UniProtKB/TrEMBL annotation:
Pfam families: 4HBT_2. This is Acyl-CoA thioesterase. CDD domains: 4HBT.
Length: 289
């Protein structure tokens, strides 16, 4: 069984291409997830301050651009796996059309019950597992790709300042904000390595974004450190990985696949040779690090 959530689209959700920004989709998934758990599994107490859920991992596959419109977009969510101390939820963001289902995004989220008052995880209770079993279906995504070893490049350094509004009711930075942090670091890195320091002159869209959550990020005055590096260079796609650090401690990791994009045709296109050369240079620098 799947839970259906009708998600409104806000004008502020759009990026410079007129698409719903990749970060915003994760906010939509959070809304759908909470709606499902509050409707069908209130025992898990997903929105309580004292006890609830933490996100362990997101895997997000962006299938097609979603534009602004007045009517909501549909999100189905369900459970793919139940373990002793965690479970995985899956999502599909779509519209039903005359010719069939038009899918914009597929994703999964690993969630773990957590006692915030004691700052510790806990196991799922038998009654919670019983509720979740009613929503079990296969995963919509292939097996995940393992992330590589971190690379500490000077060009990939970005100081991350946490805003007070980034913090949720539990005192931690909300899981959605991590996608925003990695996006900021990624854009700063690409802008920095463009040799004249200006815009790189080509459009990118995000095709895949996976984020691992290791240790909660808290609000503080001094910045955290983000390190990014190029992990793959293709004909029209580029892989980039990033880590968020507090000293030598890795707080979170991300792997992103970007695709060069033609705004006029709304399709992927081969990257210009100068752009491939730029990313290849960074890929080789990471390999030497």
């Amino acid at each position: 069984m799947r839970h259906l959530y009708r998600c409104p689209i806000r004008w502020a959700d759009l990026d410079m291409l007129g698409h719903v920004n990749n970060v915003i989709y994760v906010d939509y998934l959070q809304e759908a997830r909470i709606d499902m758990l509050r409707t069908h599994a209130p025992e898990i107490r997903a929105t309580d301050v004292g006890e609830g859920l933490v996100v362990v991992r997101h895997e997000v596959q962006f299938v097609a651009p979603l534009m602004f419109r007045a009517e909501p977009v549909s999100i189905e969510c369900w459970v793919t796996e139940i373990r002793a101390g965690s479970f995985t939820m899956a999502y599909e963001v779509f519209d039903e059309t005359a010719t069939g289902r038009r899918v914009y995004l597929r994703a999964t989220t690993v969630l773990a019950p957590f006692v915030f008052a004691e700052e510790r995880p806990r196991r799922l209770r038998p009654d919670e597992k019983d509720v979740l079993r009613g929503f079990v279906e296969p995963s919509p995504l292939p097996p995940s790709v393992r992330m590589g070893e971190p690379k500490l490049l000077e060009a990939g350094h970005y100081p991350l300042h946490v805003r007070f509004s980034d913090v949720d009711a539990y005192g931690h930075v909300n899981n959605v904000k991590y996608f925003e942090y990695f996006q900021e670091a990624r854009i700063a890195y690409i802008t920095h390595v463009a040799h004249d320091g200006s815009d790189i002159g080509v459009q990118f869209v995000v095709a895949q974004c996976d984020v691992d959550y290791k240790t909660p990020i808290l609000f503080r005055g001094e910045p955290y450190r983000v390190q990014s590096w190029v992990s793959h260079v293709g004909r029209s796609s580029f892989g980039m990985e990033s880590i968020i650090l507090d000293g030598d401690t890795v707080l979170s990791r991300a792997r992103v696949v970007m695709v060069t994009f033609d705004r006029a045709t709304q399709r992927s296109v081969p990257a210009p040779e100068r752009v491939r050369a730029l990313f290849q240079e960074q890929f080789e620098a990471a390999a030497r690090a």
